[in-house]
Amino acid sequence: MMKAKQIFLLSILLLFFLSGRRLNAQEQSLDDGVLRILAIGNSFSEDAIEQNLYELAKAGKKKIVIGNLYIGGAPLSLHVSNAKEDKPAYRYRKINLEGHMSEKTNERLSEALVDEAWDYISFQQASPLSGDYESYAKDLPLLYEYVTKHVKYPETNYILHQTWAYQNGSSHEGFVRYNRNQSAMYKAIVNTSQEVFNWGNFDVLVPSGTAIQNARSSYLGDQFTRDGYHLNLDYGRFVAACTWYEALFKENVVNNTFLPLKVTYIEGQIAREAAHQAVVSPYGVTVLKDFQLMK
Questions:
Q1: Dihedral, 199, 202, 204, 209 alpha carbons, nearest 10
Q2: pTM score > 0.85 for this model?
């Protein structure tokens, strides 16, 4: 019975995804030397792309514009509701070509989708549901269909952002879903992200969850959040930004020279290596053997 249900869900999802993709060779190309990304997200996209990603791109001599449609804790279902009712529900933050951030309140999804010629638009689930396959199956196709119909150019590509497991001991109520076990939550996240990514029509997976788990294998241990679930403001956020950089630009972030002021040299090495290995192997932990405590 469960197998039949999964096959039915998958067939519905594929129908939405395949019908949602619009290709038109006559439309203007997005290839203007600037990479523009828009996240339909929450505080986890805030952690991942609003700090350090612009600076990494600049150090790598890349031009980038970064947008984030922010509602704290927003699940896919809320984005679907906002889209259907065209609600002015978002704080829309944008980092321009010069690295300056602006914020517009009461923004609509429909407005942000045509604000820039977005090369990439990313989707992510709320963190408690990030390992829940059926929550994606229920809402992601509806949101994807809306976005592909309202985006400015049909050449826009799509990202799935794989978020991270909570710190062991986290008090977040959503941790109960995973028996308050970080390993169980991580496994659920990677299994779900792999299934969802394989539906088709996602062009990039950003494996921030695996990058953070890789980094936790270093001597820094399970210290990458500031409250048990949001990334710490220094090397935690840097890990996620490094992962986005390599996934977007297909360039080994280990060679990037940018280092945030409050991140030490060794912390920066760990962050870059954790991110690089995650992009290479997004669905399993790579132990950072070179960054273990000496015994």
A1: -50
A2: yes
